[in-house]
Predict the structure of Alpha-1,4 glucan phosphorylase.
Amino acid sequence: AIDATIPLKSRSLWQKHQVKKFENADQFEGRFIDHVETTLARSLYNCDDLAAYEATSMAVRDNLTIDWNKTQQKFTTRDPKRIYYLSLEFLMGRALDNALINMDISDKNETDVNGASGKPTKKKEGAATNTKEMVAESLDELGFRLEDVIEQEPDAALGNGGLGRLAACFIDSMATENIPAWGYGLRYEYGIFAQKIIDGYQVETPDYWLNLGNAWEIERNEVQFPVTFYGYVDRSEKNTSTLAPSQWIGGERVLACAYDFPVPGYKTSNVNNLRLWKAKPTTEFDFAKFNSGDYQNSVEAQQRAESITACLYPNDNFEQGKELRLKQQYFWCSASLHDIIRRYKKTKRPWREFPDQVAIQLNDTHPTLAVVELQRILVDLEKLDWHDAWDIVTKTFAYTNHTVMQEALEKWPVGLFGHLLPRHLEIIYDINWFFLQDVAKKFPKDVDLLSRISIIEEGGQERQIRMAFLAVVGSHKVNGVAELHSELIKTTIFGDFVKFFGPSKFTNVTNGITPRRWLKSANPALDKLISETLQDPEGNYLLDMPALTKLSALADDKEFQKKWYKVKKDNKIRLADLIKKLNGGVDIIDREHIDDTLFDMQVKRIHEYKRQQLNIFGVIYRYLAMKTMIANGASLKEVEEKFPRKVSFFGGKSAPGYYMAKLIIKLINSVGDVINNDVEIGNLLKVVFIPEYNVSKAEIIIPASDLSEHISTAGTEASGTSNMKFAMNGGLIIGTVDGANVEITREIGEDNIFLFGNLSENVEELRYNHQYQETPIPEDLDKVLKHIEEGNFSPENPNEFQPIVDTIKAHGDYYLCSDDFDSYIATQELVDQVFHTQRDEWTKKSILSVANCGFFSSDRCIQEYSETIWNVEPVKK
Ligand code: F58
């Protein structure tokens, strides 16, 4: 990295030409045209929507960059404790709208400080009151529509689901809360695959999101670190202990090159940084190969470096254990740590103060290698004593767990690991050795404990490193992501650790979501109604979400309910428009009856534990019951009385190699084909699978929901965050007593949520019963399963869905669909009843959901992390 300062005598010239932000429409327009004509080398004769998007983004980015620089300079001068959020996934979505909302220059825009009166005067009649409106008006004058311009931006989809989106919300809240924080991740060339639905099947296509360039990133060619893999540890005679400084003679070397993304906070000039690493070949050159005339191969070997950051692994709640994945992890941890240490060293503080200045949060176990890498740097390179080093390490790191499911817990075979990172394996063995000694000292009589608690798992085909255990041992705090989950990890996967470390090491921070994106940006109509109602035209409530409780007073107010309902209806129409577009212009949704049609949604990754299969079984049950009524001579009107109008929306991706999840997608689509084409039932029931569910689609889908489904088997969904998004947009929830549903219920009140199903404390017993007795299938579910088995949804391949039926009937129904089916159906009936016969009650519940969901702002999460885990404070001015 460079360290060049300009001599004092030259500085006035720099100051004279100091770059300025655009602060009004005129200046924005100037910047826009500059970028079109110079950066893009285009003109008014060939400026399309895409060029307009690029020019707008670059103009906005210029402003952010100026604030980014100031923020970083401020941090350098003030030298506060910093927090580094390490996440292998950042599911950011689009940046432009968010940036326009967050960088508020409305004061300067609205007013024209006029020298004579000194009083602010309106620039022109009806002038914009915020940056977004201002830019919208400017674009209009320049010949574009902001909505179309925004649509040009591809999603930055560098994540799978909840975990990656959580990181994105946190990074927004850290900027908003003025926390000196950086995110560190990987700049994947390909984000999560794009999902096509062909013949009802999921087909994956690559997401080459950087195809048209990326206006938001700053390539920092001056920030590069070499990262080494493979090789061996040099153990000379005088250095026989693995605890003493050792020399790792690496084999392959690649360069980590930094790309920075500005992260603006809301109503603050604070702009934080998200630094993503790209792997590049080194400029080193293999003389041996070259001399032997093998030039081509030596170049090809170099090019392979780039494959490290080529692709995001597309699994959700499943760990695969591929070498390239481990390479990604080390590449990222090593580069990030060296960058953090370089910054720390500039302060010239001694090593022991490191944990006072640096907090590193591990988003799941994926960055756990950072623990080992810091220990290696301190012992091998900085020559600290092992124990002094370990003390620094454990005070620096904290770890967030996101799952208790065995198949999602990361483990690495020691063979593979030691081949790639021989010195790190030694260090892990030594960490484990000291740890087990302490355990043995404390519990000398518990003989099984050591093998249970060991970081190295023995007994299988090959020894494995348990990354979650390593993360617990290497951190000073471990948190779960919702109360129930944080309690569960203490009694299940980390039970022994609670015994050893005591309970205070384990804590809870319930997840949250950023209300800027998930309310203001996704649901402008609701935002407008709320700001009007709270008499908060500046949108300050978005920084203080508990202020929404004031809406409770209006929950029964008929006039307010009407306005509230209008917002929902318009959002439902907006979604219907999207579905029509996706469907090649054919309308599936009956717009005439949209008021009376319940929009029921389940959008999230497809996974057996999330139980999209339970949902579709419920749909089939409903359909069959409607058909029976008709067969018995009932009129459509009578059917509607019993089964009011409903559209069941599904959306979500399956991991490409997850057979059962893919089959569930196919089943949903096949059921949709049958139901949507059945003229007998008219438009009373529709099933829509929305392909390519992603952040920007979620922003349209979520505000349109009447009801959403969060129906995981109790004890499996650590938190869930879409439940919060739906509640914040006035959608009601049908859900199990799982994850954050529990706290949502507490906040919004149990009258305002539809809970059903078995509780987590009963799951183990129920599963046990299924294993040793034949699974009893409730009568109504049995009808559904038989209908599937008869091939009614797959006439050309009658057995197609047998594996789904078999998981329940033959393989022990691990996710307990049979146990929860009847209560699910009964609860759906209650939903129908309230929606169709007590609409005012429904709207009241919807208002109360929004009024009481303030707790789920990710700003609150960041405050909790800051106070209880990181010990960092906001740096305001
Ligand atoms: C999710 N985990 C949890 N993991 O399932 C969800 O309940 C929670 O709300 C969310 O984290 C945020 O805390 C999750 O999304 C992954 O996608 C991993 C990706 C890498 C492989 C292992 C799963």
About this structure: DSSP finds 35 helices and 26 strands in the chain.
